TrEMBL record:
It is an enzyme of class 5 (isomerase). Keywords: FAD, Flavoprotein, Isomerase. Gene3D superfamilies: NAD(P)-binding Rossmann-like Domain (3.40.50.720). Residues 151-354 form the UDP-galactopyranose mutase C-terminal domain. This is UDP-galactopyranose mutase. GO terms for cellular component: cytosol. It comes from the Bacteria.
Length: 373
């Protein structure tokens, strides 16, 4: 399509999906304008420098992938450090290693060998082994029995999602590895790390000289922005694009409380989860440990799960049957003749998916190879 518009693409949102698209578009000399309602670029991977420490302003982001193409792609822009995520769980003042591995089984039951651990797990899951798990609670009981579920999963999960674990889809817990080695690496992926120099460096590298305007809400002057480009890549919430005409997609939000402390090391680990339901936050991040920081001070963030409303950020899509059905209605509309020529949709908010960063990049590369070929 050729029109007199100044740009080939307007991208609504300046997060990771947008940045990958913008980079690929720049390789083909496309004219791109990006706008974002926040006053900074980077979306949720944006970091703020506090006391020389990169603070993950929108929650912990740990890059991990098994996709070599994605790994090589990001390594064009930044090198990665050797950070390996090994969160510790605090339940009623006792500490447990995560993900569920031989260290955890030893801490829970005193078992010392894989054979002992397997025998113990067989015993504790016996009452549930015939379940065909249809929700997160059943899935967790089926995998590891009652003790592990109640100490390390139930409280955290119900705080995190704001509903009983029986009403949460089981796939969420399938993200967590379960292994019979003394291996505290939270992820099974081949590649992992934090960008040296921080995530902002990755975002800056991707955007290059792309024109970006921050602090502008697309919906304030949608017609004006639309007229500026032949096509619009919209990376915001898909329901909002369509005025929530079929209803609102549900999300879970977070509230962060960040503090600078006059100590060099508060908790000895980047991530400590609090799995008891009576502790109101789910985890404490100590940002310097993502980058092996050595300064005299430290910055910590307590992460409180929160109802999603228009006043806070949409972090976790709920992805249950009701919301998936609603999503299909919006996706159908997005594909209709009225919209598909002008608008493309992508990213975790437009796709309503629980994307990790590598999924976002993979999805963006897929879209660009279709769109820009
Ligand atoms: N989870 C849990 N206990 C923990 C950590 C995680 O039960 O200590 C469960 C919880 O249901 C959570 C899911 O595992 O929603 C996925 O956790 P993950 O750490 O992958 O979530 P994210 O880092 O994306 O918030």
């Amino acid at each position: 399509m050729t029109t007199s518009a100044k740009y080939d693409y307007l991208i609504v949102g300046a997060g990771l999906f947008s940045a990958v698209f913008a980079h690929q578009a720049s390789l083909q000399n496309k004219r791109v304008l990006v706008i974002d309602k926040r006053d900074h670029r980077g979306g949720n991977i944006y970091c703020e420098n506090v006391e020389g420490i990169n603070v993950h302003k929108y929650g912990a982001h740990i890059f991990h992938t098994s996709n070599k193409e994605v790994w090589d792609y990001v390594n064009q822009f930044v090198d990665f450090n050797h950070y390996v995520n090994s969160p510790v769980a605090n339940y009623r003042d006792k500490l447990y290693n995560l993900p569920f591995n031989m260290n955890t089984f030893y801490q829970l039951w005193g078992v010392k060998t894989p054979a002992e651990a397997k025998a113990k797990i067989e015993e504790v899951r016996a009452p549930y082994k015939d379940l065909e798990p249809s929700n997160l609670e059943e899935q967790a009981l089926f995998l590891g029995g009652k003790d592990l579920y109640e100490k390390l999963i139930k409280g955290y999960t119900e705080k995190q999602w704001g509903r009983p674990a029986t009403q949460i889809p089981s796939f969420i817990i399938k993200r967590l590895p379960f292994r019979f080695t003394f291996d505290n690496n939270y992820f099974n992926d081949l590649y992992q790390g934090i960008p040296i120099g921080g995530y902002n460096k990755l975002i800056d590298g991707l955007f290059g000289d792309t024109e970006i305007l921050t602090g502008l809400n697309y919906f304030d002057e949608k017609e004006k922005y639309d007229a500026m480009a032949d096509k619009v890549l919209y990376t915001g919430k898909i329901d909002e694009f369509f005025d929530c005409q079929f209803g609102k997609l549900e999300y879970r939000s977070l509230h962060f409380e960040t503090e600078v402390l006059d100590t060099d090391n508060f908790q000895g680990n980047a991530v400590v989860n609090y799995t008891d339901k009576d502790v109101p936050f789910t985890r404490i991040l100590e940002h310097k440990h993502f980058e092996f920081g050595t300064s005299d001070k430290t910055v910590i963030t307590r992460e409180y799960p929160h109802e999603f409303s228009k006043d806070n950020e949409p972090y976790y899509p709920l992805n249950d049957k009701v919301n998936e059905a609603l999503l299909s209605q919006y996706q159908e509309l997005a594909q209709s003749a009225q919209y598909r020529e002008k608008y493309i949709f992508g990213g975790r908010l437009a796709d309503y998916k629980y994307y990790d960063m590598d999924d976002t990049i993979e999805a963006a590369l897929k879209l660009t190879s279709r769109e820009l070929s």
